[in-house]
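A reminder before we start the practical. When you read a complex entry, don't treat the lines as separate problems. The point of joint prediction is that each chain is placed relative to the others, so the output describes one connected object in space. Small molecules and nucleic acid strands, if listed, are placed in the same frame. In the example below there are two entries. Take a minute to note the order of the lines before looking further.
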Amino acid sequence: MALSSYVLLVILGSGLVTWLSRVIPFILLKQFKLPKIIVNFLGFVPICIMTALWMESLFIQHLGQFPSLNVPNALASIPTLISAVISKNLLIIVVVGVISLGIVNLLV
Amino acid sequence: MTGDLDTKSALKETLPTVFGYIGIALAFGITARANGLSILEIFLMSLITYAGSAEFVIVSLVALHAGIGSIVLSVFLVNARMILMSMVVAPYLSHESMWKNIWAGTLLTDETFALSMNKLNYTGRKLNFRWLDTANLFAYLVWGFSSAIGGMLGNLISDPEKFGFSFALVAMFIGLLYLQMVSDRTIKLMVQFIVVLFVIVAMYLGMRWLPQNGLLLVVTLLGCGFGVVLKHGTK
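Here is the predicted structure of the whole assembly.
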């Protein structure tokens, strides 16, 4: 199996910067406590990141213009959201989401 | 989700993530193979870089023979949000040893981060190494092997998008966002709702000016800042 030195260096370099981003906060926060204002700030990270990741899949970027809507993903989001409200069960939500997009892709 | 922080509940609660990972990792393997990477390269990238969406970015840049430095910089920008997520999770593991902290951070992803945030709402805001490590390892192994299998399927499947699996993780974030909003008692529901609207509008407007890779981080930081102001204003 082929392994070029170019790809290997890319993998190792990318791996290193990703690993440092993941691990340095753990090392520092094992020794220091964050001030209250930062803790408050970080409290909003989960909902902000989850919303932003969702929006990334709903909008299609065209730099210099406003984004267009990813119609299949937007349509599939509706039953997914409804299933979240009704079931509150992550496995059900994921299955409903995948089936919804599968059906939308068949129709659109 | 339950209040138990043992191996069994971690495995059970990571299942939706694993289901999503299988779909996306297969699609990743297929895409990477189509762009000329070998199965070994695909497998190593998923095991060493282990960076979900950033791996798709790497494949597209490798196909263009981009410089190593510029690829690594792009990956750093895409993954800089990990710094924020690790900062949020780390305080909950500070009672564990340094090595356990480093290991938990090494395998943390968007998805296991989101799961652990949700878990906090069921455990009286407690987390331990065993639960997070089980979730992390389960997700990691499934991601690695599924991307290799995707590479082996290679050219058999030309359009992995059409099966809807690409939506599995989006669906998970929609679900976790909803569950987070209704169960997190540390921030008022109305404040959370306004912050979510703010992020939606900021992502929409921001896409005009900033490439998506950097935008996610900028909008998250703005959203958190806006949230802090709002939280203090409504007290």
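Discuss with your neighbour: Chain B has a mean pLDDT of 91. What might explain this?
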